[in-house]
Write a structure and sequence with these properties.
The protein has five helices and ten strands, in the order αβαβββαβαβββββα. It is an alpha+beta fold and about 170 residues long. A hairpin with a 6-residue loop joins β2 and β3. Pfam families: SET (PF00856).
């Protein structure tokens, strides 16, 4: 099963799909670790556009979403800026080789806040990002992450991500 050529060319041939050897041998791909998001997408009512909002009360420490990721080769830095803004720095998160990743599910849809109400952890072997509530979150509250180089933590002292991408920070 391959990707359509137009998809590969859009990403400049930088896609690297991962299927564990054991799954390949059985001819299947299991997604037993995937957890659907406890949120839903809607307009934020601000210039941020769409965001992810809690569908129910979420408690501190609770797993909000477990997302598979699509890894992009080291050439991900050559992708259009509009695409790079959706990516996580996989190499930074996993202390591994330089790569970007696109989190599937709502993972690449969370807006920025500092402090954020979600933290995230990369699981290199599984190639997944897990998003956890850092504090109790009320129903219909926007779910947010910190975009800066925090390694998934909720606070930062510098808005380096916004400067690097030439984006003006929008206050909530």
């Amino acid at each position: 099963m391959g990707l359509r050529k137009d998809v590969m060319s859009f990403f400049g041939g930088a896609l690297s799909l991962y299927v564990p050897k054991a799954w390949k041998a059985r001819g299947q791909v299991a997604m037993t670790n995937i957890k659907a998001c406890l949120g839903h997408i809607r307009d934020t009512g601000s210039s941020k556009g769409r965001g992810v909002f809690a569908s129910r009360q979420i408690f501190a420490g609770e797993l909000v979403e477990a997302c598979p990721v699509v890894l992009l080769s080291p050439y991900w830095v050559q992708l259009p800026e509009e695409v790079k803004r959706l990516l996580f720095n996989w190499g930074h998160l996993t202390k591994g080789e330089s790569a970007g990743c696109l989190a599937l599910g709502w993972g690449s849809m969370y807006n920025h806040a500092n402090p954020a109400n979600l933290r995230y952890v990369a699981f290199a072997e599984e190639r997944e990002l897990h998003f956890f509530a850092d504090r109790d979150i009320e129903i219909n509250e926007e779910l947010t992450i910190n975009y800066n180089h925090t390694g998934g933590n909720v606070t930062s002292t510098d808005d380096v991500w916004f400067r690097r991408h030439g984006v003006t920070l929008i206050s909530s």
